[in-house]
Specification:
globular, 11 helices, 22% strand, alpha/beta, five-stranded parallel β-sheet
Length: 347
């Protein structure tokens, strides 16, 4: 018997495969800890539910006696395995006595299961995959629901999830976020279908501009899907005859009307970092080159929203952390990389 069994996942939403893993954890340890991944992400078709909503689904699917032995710990995405592993260990440590015997519950499904090898010292409690259902199929049916509605769309999958999850999904479909998520799901589906006939999946190249001035950073609010209404740094796709530098200056100008001499922008440039995690964008494999500028004590350049930006604003750096759940895709983590917003964990 282990002291603690740990289960790591996103649970978007909870289905019977998740429950099988959780029951295995509870059967083999005195307590179970669920690491709730993708915490504090803005809602999207891939991450439609808050970590609190997902915890509620998990607990509702368990008998009362098991709920008392379950601890749920939210952990953000870092798009950096070393930092993420360190964050998971830091989250777990206060809940385990020194020398505790810890097990990690899971099975090797595909490349996304490689994290199971990242925790030496935690014994793998392997469980065979339970059926073929996964959360992606549920989300696709849920957001792809046609005129007959969510009930008809989920009916073929109802036996693959606990009744409490099904009830939650029906209730959530009546709330305001559902319609926006469904619109975004359809947009992304159409986007991917537009290049589905290509001989190889395309790799998109983008640029982003992190512009700092007087300890404020320039942010836009996206005016179009994906991520309509979410905060982001100015940026966009590189054009055929541009360098990444030229694209960065053009996108900054088009979305915010920041007009500074190129020489001043070059002197303000502090770093260029490539963000290339395979899962950073739901639009497909997208590699961005983020340029970090610091204008230090200069006067704030005048700004005006345009192009894909519905709004543009200077936001104090010390307020960024409180806005984490409002950011598009990995843009909060991009800012964290340059501005050290969250505590440093890992390397």
């Amino acid at each position: 018997m282990h002291d603690t069994a740990i289960l790591i996942g996103r649970f978007e939403p909870v289905h019977n495969g998740h429950l099988a893993l959780l029951r295995h954890a509870l059967a083999n340890a005195r307590q179970a800890i669920v690491i709730m991944g993708s915490a504090w992400q803005a809602r999207s078709p891939k991450n439609p539910f808050t970590w609190g909503e997902r915890e509620g689904m998990l607990r509702a699917a368990l008998p009362e006696s098991d709920r008392a032995r379950l601890t749920v710990l939210p952990v953000r995405d870092y798009y950096n395995e070393a930092r993420w592993v360190a964050a998971v260990r830091d989250a777990v440590q206060p809940h385990c006595a020194a020398g505790a015997r810890i097990g990690l519950v899971g099975h090797f499904k595909d490349a996304t299961s490689s994290y199971l090898r990242a925790f030496p010292g935690w014994e793998l409690l392997s469980v065979e995959r339970q059926g073929s259902i996964d959360a992606t199929a549920i989300r696709d049916a849920y957001f792809g629901a046609g005129p007959q509605g969510v009930g008809a769309a989920l009916a073929p999958l109802a036996g693959q999830m606990p009744a409490s999850t099904l009830s939650f999904l029906h209730a959530f479909a009546a709330e305001a976020p559902y319609a926006a998520l469904q619109e975004e799901w359809r947009m992304l589906r159409g986007y991917r279908e537009s290049w589905s006939a290509a001989p190889y999946p395309p790799v998109f190249v983008t640029v982003d501009a992190v512009l700092r001035c007087q300890d404020h950073v320039l942010l836009i609010r996206r005016g179009q899907a994906p991520g309509r209404g979410q905060l982001a740094v100015p940026g966009g796709f590189i054009e055929q005859r541009e360098t990444v530098w030229q694209s960065c200056l053009r996108e900054l100008l088009e979305e915010t009307h920041v007009q500074l001499p190129e020489a001043r922008m070059r002197s303000a440039l502090r770093a260029v970092t490539v963000f290339d995690h395979p899962d950073r964008s739901q639009r497909g494999r997208t590699i961005t080159h983020a340029h970090y500028f610091d204008l230090e004590g200069d006067a704030f350049p005048p700004v005006q929203a345009d192009d894909d930006a519905a709004e543009v604003q200077w936001v104090p750096v010390d307020r960024i952390g409180a806005l984490e759940e409002a950011f598009f895709e990995d843009h909060f983590h991009m800012l964290d990389h340059f501005l050290d917003i969250t505590p440093r964990v890992g390397s």
